[in-house]
Amino acid sequence: MSDFSDFFPAAAGGGIGKTVTVGDYSYPNAQSLANFTGNKLTVFGASGATGNATSNLNIQLSSLTQPVGGTQYIKRLATADTYVTVADITSATNGGACYAILGWNGDNTSGNFNKNFTTRITLDGGSAVEYPFAPVPDTASRKGFVAMGKAWVLASGISNSNGNSQAFQSQNQIVAESGPKTLYNTYDPTTGGWTNQNTWTSNVQRLQFDMIDAISASTQGLPYLHFTTSLKVEMKILAAGTVSNVYCGASILTF
After folding, report:
1. What is the pTM of this model?
2. What angle do CA 109, 47, 146 make, to 5 degrees?
3. DSSP E strand stretches across 1-139
4. Where are the chain's structural domains?
5. Rounded to whole angstroms, how far apart are CA atoms 122 and 231?
6. pLDDT tens-digit series, residues 57-82
7. CA 101/CA 83 separation, integer angstroms
8. CB neighbours of 6 closer than 8 A, spacing ≥ 6?
9. Rounded CA gap, 72 and 61, in Å?
10. Within 10 Å of residue 12's Cβ, how many Cβ atoms?
11. In a 10 Å sphere around its CB, with 0-12 CB exposed, 13-18 middle and 19+ buried, how is residue 246 labelled?
């Protein structure tokens, strides 16, 4: 009898990532540095559009206003265009995983445009390399967030003039009364990242943006950047005005 492969040939390429095994435990879905850093998303609100969807945009990373620890590394950015060390892990005997690098901008001061995030990663004692997120246009609202990796979740509510609320979302799409809106909407070839601009004009959109802690991310098999001994993550934001309500974070687990 013929082998099953005669009828079902092996697929070329593919796979969700490498599995790293430490002792009795396996951590699937390790990504290459290029894959992990290439998954970048910038979400922001348009400024000056009709209706109140953009002027009332309320995007929050609630983890940042609560006590954090363990696998969630949180820092506030207080100075424009200046790197802040989010996490600096050294001598990790069994290595570890970085599931997400995130930034949240809550500033809403007139003239505070150009809120563009950049992260800098130093992997296993190598050279520090910068990875800019797709920029926010000069005409856009100040509030927004950036995400690298998949260890984050969204929650949203849409209300219209009749007081109705109807919305749901995933990491790829938001669906509301006005129809589906993809999060990965426009590709920026300069940074290799994606952007989404909220241009809804008939509803009020409020987004809640939260980090998934690395322990939960590991049990879900989410993709991650693997480091064998050390990892340093830094973040900065380029701003034209005062930085007063901007934070960044990383979800990291040591094996």
Report:
1. 0.82
2. 75
3. 18-22, 25-31, 40-46, 58-61, 72-77, 84-89, 96-105, 116-123, 129-132
4. 40-254
5. 6
6. 445 565 555 545 578 888 888 888 99
7. 14
8. none
9. 12
10. 5
11. buried
